[in-house]
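Field reference: sequence -> structure
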Amino acid sequence: MGQLKDKVVIVTGASSGIGAATALKLAKEGAIVITSSRNIKGLEETANSIRKNKGKVMSIKVDVKNESDIKDMISIVKNKFGRIDAIVNNAGVFYTGPIDSFDTNELDETLDINLRGIYLCCKYAAQVMKKQKNGHIINISSGSGRVARPELSAYTASKFGVMGITESLIQELKPYNIKVSALCPGRTNTPMQIQGSKAYRKKLVQPEQVADLIAYMLSLGDNANITEVHLRPTQY
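Structure field:
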């Protein structure tokens, strides 16, 4: 069994892509993984993959746009397992377009899920972690969380915001022995962002590589924390 044996870890956006790969990796490392998403079918697929590998998993339907969903998820996990060792805030959406024609509904959804959703997950996870005086929050940002590109203004705003939340919480939660980290993947072969040929997608960062990095971050001892890390494909 791996270094994360019986650690209770929540992974949001676990129905596909980075979230699904992370849930599977953490389960293989021995963690008790709580997967969440608004996509029930995808959640079941992830859970079934974990069970086939004899991992421990519990799935909860959560739409991070709804504060009550997040609050209930944290309460369910705390009541069942007695603690929350880590949360990987991965749920997100990706819309592109020039600002003068960008759909306002897509703007609202981007900020609600990518920014407000992560903020609220941090809020309710921190309530548990402060009492237990231990925990680790990993926020999945993006290369767009540090470097802006055209026609990504809404997405970039949300991811810059995630970096701000993370940097603030690193200092705020440090006295409670809670680690906070930001992981910024570059172009990653996920259904949310990438279309193209098989050869093109093979050159990108793979979700499993992001998952390996998350597992490593969570396996560090209490005396060390990777506060910010960028993962990029070598050919872009």
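Note: Helices lie at 17-28, 40-52, 67-81, 104-132, 153-173, 198-202, 207-219.
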